[in-house]
Amino acid sequence: MIETITPDWPAPARVKACCTTRRGGHSAAPFDSLNLGLHVGDREADVMLNRRRLREQLALPGEPEWINQTHSADVVTLESDPGRDADAAITREPGRVAVVMTADCLPILLCNRDATEVAALHAGWRGLQAGIIQSTLAAMQSPRAHLLAWIGPGISQACFEVGDEVYAAFVDADSTASACFSANRPGHWLCDLAGIAAVLMYELGVAQVSRSPYCSYRDAELFFSYRREAVTGRMASLICIN
Q1: Architecture in CATH for domain 4-156+213-241
Q2: Which helix (H) or strand (E) holds 45?
């Protein structure tokens, strides 16, 4: 049976959202077992079976609209944009399922209070630094004061060491980002990706930001982690309007 995490956020009842774990699928190690990514080296037949199980067991209103993620700031609107190279997807049409895949990067889900617009974002440090949050909010039609956000399971600060170049990329752009870094060893920092994303969304006017307590790196029984395992599967974070 597929195991998922339901966001703890005050979304309207018509908004359906969840994040998968690694449990309940068909893939063999090291993709065991609910790998949903076709690009990681897993058997295509196993991935497609996992995707079918996901759709059926969650009673999704349609097939998730998988996008080709490239750590960019590119956004698609599912109803009108034929392209699928992007790191965020927006929909305003009931029954369309926006989805992103992660394995340490942050999945971020957005909805408005009226349940008329939702979005799913893939946000690693490169995407955050490139402006994926800003691009998504600019492409949404809802007033930001009406938006709710949930930051799903990603790598925690205690497990995410980065070099001076990552620290500088964020702090040079916004000095307040320094609060989301902790000096570790010479030339290295522990980076709070979820903190950076949360602060940025509040600064940009998002009404409420909720955060998952899970760490994809530490919680090995529940989540895939690229930093922990390199060759591994991908979780999916999904959102739609019923």
Answers
A1: 4-Layer Sandwich (3.60)
A2: helix 44-57
